[in-house]
Fold:
Amino acid sequence: MSKQLDIRTAKERITKLSNQINDLRYRYHVLDDPSITDEIYNSLTQELIQLEQTYPQLKLRNSPTDRVAGVALDKFQKVQHQARMMSLNDAFSKDDVLAWQDRIQKLVPNSKLSYFAELKFDGLAISVRYQKGELAIAATRGDGFVGEDVTNNIKTIHSIPLILPKPETIEVRGEAIMTKEVWRNLNKQQEKEGKPTYANTRNAGAGSIRQLDPEVTASRKLQFYAYDIAGNNLATHEAVHTKLKELGFRFTKYQKICKNLDEVFAFYDEVGRVRESLGFGIDGIVVSVNESEVFRKLGVVGKAPRGSIAFKFPPEQATTVVENIFVNVGRTGKLTPVAALRPVFVGGTTVSRATLHNEDEIRRKDIRIGDTVVIQRAGDVIPEVAEVLPKLRTGKEKKFVMPKVCPVCEEPVARRIIGEKDRSADYFCANPKCPTKNLRSMEHFVSAFDIYTVGPKILKRFKDEGLISDVVDLFYLKKEDIQSLERFGEKSAENIVNSIQEHKKITLPKFIYSLGIPHVGEETAFDLAQRFGSVERLMEATVAEINAIPNIGEVVSRSVHEWFAQKANKELVKGLIKAGIKIETIKIKTTPLTGKSVVVTGSLDSMSRDEAKEAVRKAGGDWVSSVSKNTDYVVVGDSPGSKADKAEKLGVKIIDEKEFLKLLS
Structure:
């Protein structure tokens, strides 16, 4: 700038420039209506940068220049979502969607349903929180409860407003995506630089969001499409989209209110016809009950809301040859047959392996070594053998037989029946000291602890060199132990040791998950932590106590109890605590609800169903889904269902939301 301005004039100029740039950003990146050249946009931005450098005290919070000015991070911080980020259950056919409708109609028999259909973007789910209209924090989905703070990177996405037109405090949910054009150009650049290319736009977009340097993210030119507002009280999902448009978020024309499933199917077919011509990747449509009150009443099952479903496009398929079948040994000792395939390009990537699940699956499909098979990416993710083409057999094909001994330690394997309904069978290595079993368990452990510096190759090296025999040994490693190994310098050794020591603190659900107990995923680990409050209590729990937890069945209950009954596993837990692991326990209060079973029917004003469930468990109560004579309280909110009538007939105490809140405190 040739002439220095006085403070008042500079402040006014900064405000006007910011408003003008924000307006141009909205017209270009949201409305796709560039009303001005890039040269003028860049010129205005450069003037603003110079003013902010001259008068740093006048720089506005969430200035447009922050989109590319974020400082590179050493690592991502964890952030807890204000409301849980859900995932969706999948449907792969019209029959699946009809069955979904039948299920929800049984739960809300007297409700009139309409549906909101929209694109299912193939990107990375992001939550963007605004405080009084200003972008405050953005996070990835993570496990649904806790994600990673990616605020600096999200600010580089021009279709996300830094400041809303109204000073609202809201949490917007949406999908960060990379366009096909940017993906193709990025891969060309990666090839020029001799770097690995990205298989698809989803991988490229997700990798771009997780860059520690925001300038790298900015160079990837990501876009953001909003689809929900957490904890909103709007009457319909359509109204949510209308509000998001008013707040300045980007949308496509492909969304529709549908009076019935026939209209949903017509929309699905229409999107399928234009799918390839779209500038971004999608893998289906999302169908949601439009009426918010009904949607809330339907509640949640597992990680997914009952009122929405992802109607996926048929997975892409290709034919190839099964060149061999080998067996992998997992962290629980389970032997999984895997098909080694003649490499084939399907679903946006080259596939050379496909899971065959178990012996029953191989027999059912009659898969043989040498067979020509149809490969598909189930749900566009996991490669699997869809079917065999027996007419192409030559007679040289060989039937596969599961080994009688573990392919790693050569100890006997045992066949176990899994599941109470389908009764499928799996083979397990019976050797508790199986090297591969042990290594897979350690890989799972460091992943759950977020110790990113210790990957599978480093773990194997440490194990082969005799530095560690189990995960407890990790926390006793010294820099001198590692730097003495070939190809490990002093700095890398120091980084590994520091990273391990920095990750000694972990929440109870994460700790339970890290132990690798068969059938215990993140959801089950959270339920166990909520119910028992400490690992010591969980270690002594009976099968009946575990089985009493909603969503946990007898197979899982027995698995948890049997795992902790083994002396070696108890010693492992004690060894980790002795090594300095700090477990943040779930604080369960003593309240009038302690030991009481609670059913909630209807919607509550003060909290969502998930929040009510968490509140009951933290208050020491048991959340149950159905009313019986053993139920202590039935909480009745707005538009209660038949549970209230059943409670009245059985003489169960019925309370309103106000009384429920008193009991919680």
